[in-house]
Specification:
Shape: globular
Number of strands: 8
Helix content: 25-40%
Radius of gyration: 15 Å
Largest sheet: 6 strands, parallel
Number of helices: 5
Structural class: alpha/beta
Distance between the termini: 10 Å
Strand content: 15-25%
Length: 171
Amino acid sequence: MKNLIVYFSHRGENYWKGKMVNLEKGNAERAAEFIRDAVGGDLLELQSVKGYPANYRACVEVARTELAGRERPELKTVPESIEQYDNIFLCYPNWCGTMPMPVYTFLEKFNFDGKNIIPLCSNEGSGMGSSERDIKSECRGANVLAGLSVRGCETVQSESVIKEWAKESVG
């Protein structure tokens, strides 16, 4: 079984335990690296061509506008195919109650029939939001496995939990 670990992560100012902190590496990126270390696989970072403001509040406004407009931002890098992968780990922050729009762009580019999609959502208390339901809606032929919600500010301390969940997810 071959794994692809796809992640969208926000660097810069992030909400962290009730205050703003500057992150050189986003929480979803850290989680994706833990998954790779646990089960192996290829990492793919989703980056929109336009990018996002480093400032937290400005980023939230862009995210809200994209969600309201159901935008699908163009991605910098997209693989030709995902056919060779059996398991797709999908790591992202909870933005406005669901996944960031670049994740939707990725999901709409491929046929996930017969593939396992395994979501991990970083957040500061809002959980997975509607993201698991949204993934199932976007990827009807996929087997969407139970996701993991990780508090962003506890991502580093959750390394062992993330690794164990990843191992259990791929059996």
